[in-house]
């Protein structure tokens, strides 16, 4: 379970269990996230990746041990975990549709000196749309708002849940570039279904199956092994389509 | 014509009262999903304490009335904030328990008020101008209706400005949409919960003092009777919508006045039928969010 010995871990998860309305959705999950680069959390559809992220943040009932930078956070409420330096980009964006773009970003600012310059550089389109209600933005623009909210603050870790889901190829590229830029300064735990994006971003992978971790290692160990991809993710890495009907580069999360 | 003007303006005055109660109910439900059946108690305690202060200062003077209104708002805010902090906070997402606790608090508080101030109405004295009338288009309008309307408009404007231009206002507006995501941005949304209870309690406490002017008395049941209509207003306006509450307050009160006058005192029935119609045709209310 340990990662590269030359790095330390910003996040350690041990024996994590998560429940939604009494139903077990995360079961005895343990893994580490090093303090640099991108760690991808992968697995087939419904395996508990999003629930694992939510368990780490305390957005669902959880038990187990979660340590951020050496400090136990599994008993802290969500807002305190985030205040310790965790940025969160949720699945389905979850922007506040009745607030303007500027208000969405303002709400996310946790310090007196937010990193607005970075956000404006990565997402110039948002600057033009500051006064627009976020609910009227396209899916790609909403995702930019969602990512921008996380990048505004000096974080120690980003939890990014399916940032390219439902986006056009052009926007997927822009979001991936933004995350690549962010990864230079902050470690990222990424849930992603697009193998091309995973190949582009991820240094390491953690694979879940049946709510448990079944593989941890360098991203290339998995991505260069078609048999493992088929076994763990249910897709072929070649040109044929998976049994679920996705293209070769897509894993349903 | 004069009758219509009279009914319209008195309806607006009654609507102002409904709004002062419904605004808090709507904000509380919108942000926290709590149906607060104890909200009428904030109104009643505000009315009683407000008028205790006025009586001791200078009964019937304007400045005593101002002191009563201020006291009513402060007491309402404090009692509401304490209710949230000590009772409701432990019960978020436990809706059955919330209903039981707030209904229990409402019943217990009525008994407490009756124990302190008695079961008979306590008649209040207000500045003489408020007991007079002003003629508009042939209709003689009780002056206190004008004060109710002006105060309700000021309260609406204050709440709107607060929601629009303050950090906590932003948090509350975002929390009404998605409070889990607000916490995921590192914001302690529980403070906003307490603040919203306090704002709602202040409006209700202020409404209690104004209700005692409207009715001419304070009683232990004044909050409960207004609460029923405030709930109807909140549902018709759309749970969580302040603008919806304001519009529905006026519509419900005006409908009630007209039905009482033209349909033989059937105002309450007309309001309930309007509620049923809204629930059947537009369950989310006039301005409520889509499910």
Summary, kept brief:
Chain A has 253 residues and is of the alpha/beta class. Chain A contains 10 helices and 10 strands.
Walk me through the structure:
The complex is a heterodimer of chains A (253) and B (291). Chain A is α/β, with parallel strands linked by helices. Chain A has a single domain (9-233), classed as 3-Layer(aba) Sandwich (Rossmann fold), CATH 3.40.50.300. Chain A contains ten helices and ten strands. In chain A, the strands form two sheets. Chain A has a six-stranded mixed beta sheet, sandwiched between helices. A four-stranded antiparallel beta sheet of chain A has the order 2-1-4-5, with helices on one face. In chain A, strand 7, helix 7 and strand 8 form a beta-alpha-beta unit. In chain A, helix 3 (101-108) packs parallel to helix 6 (139-151) and helix 6 packs parallel to helix 7. The longest helix of chain A has 15 residues, at 169-183. Mean pLDDT of chain A is 88; it is low at 1-5 and 239-253. By secondary structure, chain B is mostly helical. Chain B has one domain: ABC transporter involved in vitamin B12 uptake, BtuC. Chain B is 76% helix and 4% strand. Chain B has ten helices and four strands; from the N terminus they run ααααβββαααβααα. In chain B, the strands form two sheets. Chain B has a two-stranded antiparallel ribbon with strand order 1-4. Chain B has a two-stranded antiparallel ribbon with strand order 2-3. The interface between A and B is medium-sized, with 21 and 16 residues. Chain B: Keywords: Amino-acid transport, Cell membrane, Membrane, Transmembrane, Transmembrane helix, Transport. Chain B: One of its GO terms (biological process) is amino acid transport.
